[in-house]
């Protein structure tokens, strides 16, 4: 990759969400904002190799995207016989009241997570607009085809436009109806950064994990008493604390049982544990924990163990039992089976995993888990076939390297 291509790639990862959010505030049109941002990046691809990378790529892209958006507005106005310039063309337009937190990206998340949209659609649209994920990457996260996901996103943008859903921070009364979708989006943005699947990206995207944590902190400032917001922040912090220990020098994923725990970030762990203790106290007072709070508690158990052998697997399984009641999804059942393998052995866990095949056959982690259990049972031929399937489905380079090594070590 050339220096210019690298600069464009870094600008896309770092600036896409900010530019789209800024244009959405100015033009109040998601389609226009996305198209203008895409045109700006296309212009950069055409011009930067000749003109050189500008000193401030983000400012250059924002200015170019704004001009592209204004040009589109003018062409649209002329085509429908309108001659009045849109107010957003002028920089001296009166500032809009934007609520308690002045953050364009957070406002865009709340716009995309309007209750008029189905939950899966809210999440997919925001991953596209804020996370900058491709339709293919989002489709993989939802285990659906790329064409299906593209149609969902297109319909969501059309509905926002037709319903005139405003681009603003919701009122305090509206927050509870929006926050579940917002948290789901932030969780998936974090996950894409934690285990990146996009072509041409590194195995970990620290820009996405950092942005997800930053935005979750802002949501917590808006809703300091919400247990699920605190739970998600704790989960992110405890997961992020392990990031630098997860990838080897040769780019291979290091599983939890092989990580150097001395490389974990103690400050992030301490903050995450404090939030988990707060939520445990609330649960003791009768407040039932939600999905993110239970996941954070599982993360706290793992990060409390000085060595993998010190892990309290019975507590982990008990927490997963609690989580299954809140979220009976096959992925949660798969993760529970991994913990069961440590407590009751791989044969018991494999019986559970095999029952999940119908719902998870297209999910690489299902085949990777199954391969590991088969390996532990000495069924090398079956394990090899499962590893092959997992490698075919995995989109993360570090994970693929780890799976390939494990497969090649089979006798």
Automatic annotation (TrEMBL):
Gene Ontology BP annotations: DNA-templated transcription initiation
Residue ranges of the TM segments: none
SUPFAM superfamilies assigned to the protein according to its UniProt record, in alphabetical order: Sigma2 domain of RNA polymerase sigma factors, Sigma3 and sigma4 domains of RNA polymerase sigma factors, TPR-like
Molecular function GO labels: DNA binding; sigma factor activity
InterPro entries attached to this UniProt entry: DUF6596, RNA_pol_sigma70_r2, RNA_pol_sigma70_r4_t2, RNA_pol_sigma_r2, RNA_pol_sigma_r3/r4-like, TPR-like_helical_dom_sf, WH-like_DNA-bd_sf
One Pfam family in the UniProt entry: DUF6596
Sequence ranges assigned to domain RNA polymerase sigma-70 region in this UniProt record: 19-77
Domain DUF6596 residue range list: 178-278
Protein keywords: Sigma factor, Transcription, Transcription regulation
Family per record: Belongs to the sigma-70 factor family. ECF subfamily.
Protein name: RNA polymerase sigma-70 factor, ECF subfamily
Organism listed in the record: Agromyces cerinus subsp. cerinus
Lineage of producing organism: Bacteria, Bacillati, Actinomycetota, Actinomycetes, Micrococcales
């Amino acid at each position: 990759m050339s220096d210019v291509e690298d600069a464009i790639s870094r600008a896309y990862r770092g600036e896409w969400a900010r530019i789209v959010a800024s244009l959405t505030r100015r033009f109040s049109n998601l389609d226009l904002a996305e198209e203008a941002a895409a045109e700006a990046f296309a212009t950069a691809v055409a011009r930067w190799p000749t003109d050189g990378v500008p000193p401030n790529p983000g400012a250059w892209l924002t200015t170019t995207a704004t001009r592209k958006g204004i040009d589109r507005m003018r062409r649209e106005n002329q085509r429908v016989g309108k001659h009045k310039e849109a107010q957003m063309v002028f920089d001296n337009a009166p500032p809009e009241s934007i609520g308690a937190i002045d953050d364009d990206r957070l406002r865009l998340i709340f716009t995309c997570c309007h209750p008029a949209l189905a939950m899966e659609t809210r999440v997919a649209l925001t991953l596209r607009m804020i996370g900058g994920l491709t339709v293919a990457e989002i489709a993989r996260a939802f285990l659906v085809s790329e064409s299906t996901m593209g149609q969902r996103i297109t319909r969501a943008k059309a509905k926002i436009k037709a319903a005139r859903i405003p681009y603003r921070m919701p009122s305090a009364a509206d927050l509870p109806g929006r926050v579940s979708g917002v948290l789901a989006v932030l969780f998936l943005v974090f996950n894409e950064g934690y285990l990146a699947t996009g072509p041409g990206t590194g195995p970990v995207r620290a820009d996405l994990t950092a942005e997800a944590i930053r935005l979750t902190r802002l949501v917590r400032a808006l809703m300091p008493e919400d247990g699920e917001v605190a739970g998600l922040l704790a989960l992110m912090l405890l997961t992020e604390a392990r990031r630098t220990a997860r990838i080897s020098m040769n780019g291979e994923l290091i599983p939890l049982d092989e990580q150097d725990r001395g490389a974990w970030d103690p400050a992030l762990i301490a903050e995450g544990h404090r939030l988990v203790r707060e939520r445990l106290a609330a649960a003791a007072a009768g407040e039932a924990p939600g999905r993110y709070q239970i996941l954070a508690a599982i993360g706290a158990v793992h990060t409390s163990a000085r060595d993998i052998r010190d892990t309290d697997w019975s507590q982990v399984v008990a927490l997963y039992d609690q989580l299954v009641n809140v979220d009976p999804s096959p992925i949660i059942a798969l993760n529970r089976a991994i913990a069961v393998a440590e407590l009751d052995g791989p044969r018991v866990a494999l019986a559970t995993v095999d029952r999940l095949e119908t719902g998870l056959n297209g999910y690489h982690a299902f085949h990777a888990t199954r391969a590991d259990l088969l390996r532990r049972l000495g069924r090398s031929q079956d394990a090899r076939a499962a590893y092959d399937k997992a490698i075919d489905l995995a989109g993360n380079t570090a994970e693929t390297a780890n799976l390939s090594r494990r497969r090649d070590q089979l006798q």
